[in-house]
Amino acid sequence: MTETVSGSAARRGKGGRKGLKVERIFTTPGVHPYDEMRWERRDVVMTNWRDGSVNFEQRGVEFPDFWSLNAVNIVTSKYFRGAVGTPQREWSLKQLVDRVVRMYTETGLREGYFASEEDAEIFDHELKYALVHQLFSFNSPVWFNVGTKSPQQVSACFILSVDDTMESILDWYKEEGVIFKGGSGAGLNLSRIRSSKELLSSGGTASGPVSFMRGADASAGTIKSGGATRRAAKMVVLDVDHPDVAEFIETKAREEDKIRALRDAGFDMDLGGKDIGSVQYQNANNSVRVSDEFMHAVEADGDFGLRARMTGEVVETVKAKELFRLMAKAAWECADPGIQYDDTINAWHTNPETGRITASNPCSEYMSLDNSSCNLASINLLKFLTDSGTFDVARFVKLTELIITAMDVSITFADFPTEKIAETTRDYRQLGIGYANLGALLMASGHAYDSEGGRSLAAAITSLMTGVAYRRSAEISAVVGPYAGYARNAEGHKRVMRKHAAANDEIRTLDTVDKAVHAAATKQWQECLKLGEKHGYRNAQASLLAPTGTIGLMMDCDTTGIEPDLALVKFKKLVGGGSMQIVNQTVPRALDTLGYQQEQIEAIVEFIGEHGHVVDAPGLRPEHYEVFDCAMGERAISPMGHVRMMAATQPFLSGAISKTVNMPEQATIEDIEKVYFEGWKLGLKALAIYRDNCKVGQPLSAAGKKEEPKAEAPVETRPVRRRLPKQRPATVTRFSVAGAEGYMTASSYPDDGLGEVFLKLGKQGSTLAGVMDAFSMAISISLQYGVPLETWVEKFTNMRFEPAGMTDDPDIRMATSVMDYIFRRLALDHLPYDERAALGIFTADERAMQANGEDPGAQPAEDEVDHETLAQSAEISRPAPAPSREAHSSMEVIESRQGRTADAPLCLTCGTKMRPAGSCYVCEGCGSTSGCS
Q: Catalyzes what (predicted)?
């Protein structure tokens, strides 16, 4: 399906018009960029920490010496092509970059983009330098596909369309499946489909869009994404005036209720569990597309009409505020639906004559025409912060030019999953340049994320990036012509350019750093408008802010997309197999910028390393605390702080922003209403929230529903207490849950069976110690009266309260409370395997056997093993602290610091706790994502 620029355009570029002149900015004439750095060989061995199995191994790979172990592992395992162990397998970063850049350079030269072969060579060298030095990265499909024998798909984001016909609906299922199979994601708007309140031409009642969502969800859950174990990435949008909008809003919240009911009945409803497949609508993000008319009705507490799809007549009138609250309530319960602001989106649409923007990609940053795609690239902003604390405008401008040129060339050679998408993308040539490491840049430069200074600098950088991108687009248009749909939309496109330039004029700068960036942005917009008026534009869209999950790790970024730092302490893998928790390097850099002396910096960093936050750090002035505020932790940025940052940058983006506004568990429905309403007032295009612990399914192992014993005829009995003898076997277990230490003494009857438990937690004589003593006596007496231990385990496991988090027990790495830990430990020590399996409680060895396809239950019966052997086995199963108890990702570091379990899922590839990346999640261990990037 590959197709080049039209012949006439190519001929104009080669003959009738001069090609682009490319300047050197990073490289040296006569010196290949690879020769200006040290390269070294490394071994990549990636294991699953849960069972020690090797997920991936390739030895002797070649990378620059400044690349981190994590970046090397991810690029080697994700992006190197060829079968492992064969001569065809790529083994050097040079091979990977050469494979990709060669295609860009050869195509650009052939199609008339460059003024001479010398310019093409400079382009080649500059692109290689930028990629190898982690200044930017293309999105993952480029690394997967470009330069291979596979289709040259370069886009990660797709928007589809569906009409009110069965043929179109079935085409939707098929097209989504093809896209998921290729490892990408898609979104679409279902509002053209008749509601369940409308009639068919045959006289029957329409099924409605929500019913058709079931089939698409089942298809996505089966295919998954890229044939991998993660879920497919998809977005489903419905207009707020659709008669089925209330059903759509509550769809996932109702399923969440189903999950709770099935879980409580004993079914395995964890993420990836064997029974979770019965739950519907879990493979998509849902968003309601609201209009200004609706939001004004909410503001005025007025009525709002829901309209028939075929005739446009009002079929039902509702209270706008009640419908808006229904959205907030559903989001409070399960994080869906998000919200998209239709009139704002289309007010910034460069192609209004072609059609409206009705949907987005799964992560909500790409918004364009139906049946279109966007290829993305992201700049590592921290690379442009100089040692003196200024932003390197000149190099940033040149890099942006380089990236836009390369991205436009890629559309020329790219393949697409369907002909409709190919046609639209070639005609409108949508690009999505963005950035990562904004949060790290702001902290390192001494700016608080939630501050006027931070927002001013972010706005200026974003404006500069988009201004340069469109200016370069106009220059490319002068060489090879504007996009095919430009003439039809010229006035609309130029109107949006003027809106961007006007927004740039509204930026209020506060210091010399953002003043310099803003001055450069103003100059770029002036040149952009002048060149665009003369030559038109090569690209309908130019910029957006993507999640930058895997590619953010490839660039060794501390923060993804527009996000602030996750926390001040993070997990770092070491060459040689070790790991450690370190304070982010942006912290000492920020302290230096703020004027602290080296001795003060060392003391503050040491304090942060011990406590995980800056409150009461020695010598740190309280007015500087805000600089170190993060997404999570002691001083978490408020939800509106995230919204305000989005609002600061949105006017300078062609698309939107992939970001989820995290809210604390105690947030109310009214809080969510406020966020959604303020997002509209501040001019955002889309917004999604996540309230901590609102989801039920967690990525833990669990067994299925146990069989209930058959009922017997009731017999009147009186329980008899069976006391323990004065001398009885006992075990003492020292434990730690999220740093809270305690001791548990468990005594058994000589002929087996637990009969007594004593717990010591808290200081002697304290209220807590007294309560635990009373609790211990109550449990012990109940056991002696015949209450089965299994009953207590059922009641107390999964109980949630503080302290909760990491334990020092290799069999029980995480506990939701001290009670959860105690009764899991008692179950492991005193219940047979079959009973524990029904409760979903396994030892580390048993989980390892399950992962290897073995049956832990196929062990010698208990009466075939003597008690001495059992005692020895117990000692082996609980060794001194081992690596398996340590954190394996930054999210697990945060959990251990906060003493609670984060909602982020475990990576289904390597078992590592994933971290947020925009509205998706990314695994620091292997680079897998839960989204489309």
A: a 2'-deoxyribonucleoside 5'-diphosphate + [thioredoxin]-disulfide + H2O = a ribonucleoside 5'-diphosphate + [thioredoxin]-dithiol
Residue 884: partners with Cβ closer than 8 Å, 6 or more residues away: 49, 810, 813, 844
**CB hemisphere CA count around 714 (13 angstroms):** 2
Tokens 């009885």 label which residue? 728
- Choice between 571 and 39, residue whose per-residue pLDDT is larger: 39
Helix (H, G, I), strand (E, B) or coil at 492: helix
Q: Which amino acid is at 595?
A: G
Report the C-alpha gap between 283 and 232 in whole angstroms.
Answer: 6
pLDDT category at 589 given cuts 50, 70, 90 is: very high
The single residue listed with the structure tokens 């060669």 is: 102
* Residues contacting residue 656 through CB under 8 Å, at least 6 positions apart: 345, 360, 364, 365, 366, 367, 544, 545, 650, 684, 685, 686
Domains in the chain and their CATH numbers? 7-154+359-550 (no CATH), 161-347 (3.20.70.20), 730-885 (no CATH)
Residues with a known catalytic role = 361, 363, 365
d(CA 717, CA 720): 9
Please state the length of the chain.
933
Sheet holding 812-815, edge to edge: 754-760, 740-748, 730-737, 805-809, 812-815
* Cβ atoms of residues 754 and 789 within 8 Å: yes
The enclosing H or E element of 809 equals strand 805-809
How many C-beta atoms lie closer than 10 Å to residue 851's C-beta?
Answer: 15
- Pairwise CA distance, residues 113 & 281, whole Å: 46
CA distance 663 to 691: 5
Residue type, position 95, single letter: Q
Structure-token match 């504007």, residue found = 482
Structure tokens at 288: 């309601």
Query: What's 612's DSSP letter?
Result: S
What is the average per-residue pLDDT within 592-608? Answer: 94
- Give the max Cα distance, the chain: 103
Tell me the pairing of strands 431-436 and 372-380.
parallel
- As a whole number of angstroms, the distance between CA 653 and CA 339 comes to 18
Residue keyed to tokens 């010229």: 490
Give me the phi and psi of 230, to 5 degrees please.
-80, 160
- Token readout for 387 is 């040692």
Q: Whole-angstrom Cα distance, residue 340 to residue 317?
A: 21
Q: In this prediction, what percent of the chain has a pLDDT beyond 90?
A: 58
Task: Centre a 10 Å sphere on the Cβ of residue 154 and count the other Cβ atoms it contains.
Answer: 31
Task: Fill in the amino acid letter for 409.
Answer: V
Helix 166-181 vs helix 209-223: angle between axes, to the nearest 10 degrees? 30
| Contacting residues for 681 by C-beta, under 8 A, at least 6 apart | none
Give the whole-angstrom CA distance, residue 40 versus residue 53: 26
Q: Rounded to whole angstroms, how far apart are CA atoms 80 and 78? A: 6
Instruction: Report the DSSP beta bridge partners of residue 340.
Output: 289, 686
- Amino acid, res. 232: A
Residue type, 91: W
The predicted model scores a pTM of 0.78
DSSP labels, 703-741:
--PPPPPPP-----------PPPSS--EEEEEEEETTEE
Both tokens of residue 205?
A: 């009642």
Can you list the alpha helix ranges (DSSP code H) found in 363-451?
A: 393-413, 419-428, 438-444
| Cα 852 to the center of its chain, rounded Å | 29
Angstrom CA distances, 560 to 279, 369, 457, 549, 556, stand at 31, 27, 17, 7, 10
- Side-chain-facing half-sphere of 559: CA atoms under 13 Å: 29
For the cut 80, the answer to whether the pLDDT of residue 870 exceeds it is no
444 touches 385 (CB < 8 A): yes
Task: Residue 834: count other Cβ atoms within 10 Å of its Cβ.
Answer: 10
Q: How confident is the model at residue 106 (pLDDT cuts 50, 70, 90)?
A: very high
Cα-based distances in Å from 147 to 12, 143, 188: 27, 9, 30
Whether the CB-CB separation of 614 and 635 falls below 8 Å is answered with yes
Place of tokens 């007496």: 781
